[in-house]
Amino acid sequence: MPSADSRLRVRKQDAVVQVEFIDRNILDEANIQLISDEISRLIDQEAAPKLLISFANVDHLSSAALGALITINNKVRNKSGQLRLASIDPQIYEVFVITRLNKLFQIHESPEDALKSFA
């Protein structure tokens, strides 16, 4: 589970690992690396990870954070897992549309909707 200096809130419901960001702004490269490493460790702990990442508290996201999300997505897929994103701010979602990442990720309005979508 997360360490004391974690930038994430993590909980497991059924077989789904739910991750929520503590920070409103995910912009700093070093912070993004820490978050990415922490999520990678969560993925490594599961045989076929079911991961739900909620952006409920996030106001700003850097391009480096988007890159980290793509890496996380690839890691989950390589283990035959499933990744869902939820509660993305409309302005941030616009970036997903522009970059076509909305086609790569399964994005849901709420964590509850995302939970229902897992096979």
Question: What would your notes on this structure say?
Answer:
This protein has 119 residues and is an alpha/beta fold. The chain is 43% helix and 24% strand. The protein is built from 5 helices and 7 strands, in the order βββαββαβααβα. It has helices at 29-44, 63-78, 90-98, 101-104, 111-116, and strands spanning 8-13, 16-21, 25-26, 50-54, 60-61, 82-86, 106-108. It has a 5-stranded mixed beta sheet with strand order 1-2-4-6-7. Strands 3-5 form a two-stranded parallel ribbon. It is globular, with a radius of gyration of 13 Å.
Shape verdict: globular
Could you name the CATH class? Alpha Beta
Helix content: 40-55%
Query: Tell me about the biggest sheet?
Result: 5 strands, mixed
β-strand number = 7
As for the CATH topology, it is Transcription Regulator spoIIAA
SSE order, one letter for each helix or strand: EEEHEEHEHHEH
Unreliable stretches covering 5 or more consecutive residues = none
End-to-end C-alpha gap:
24 Å
Based on secondary structure, the structural category is alpha/beta
Q: Which architecture does the CATH hierarchy give at level 2?
A: 2-Layer Sandwich
Strand coverage percent: 15-25%
The strands making up the biggest β-sheet line up spatially as 1-2-4-6-7
Rg for CA atoms? 13 Å
Task: Please state the average pLDDT score.
Answer: 94
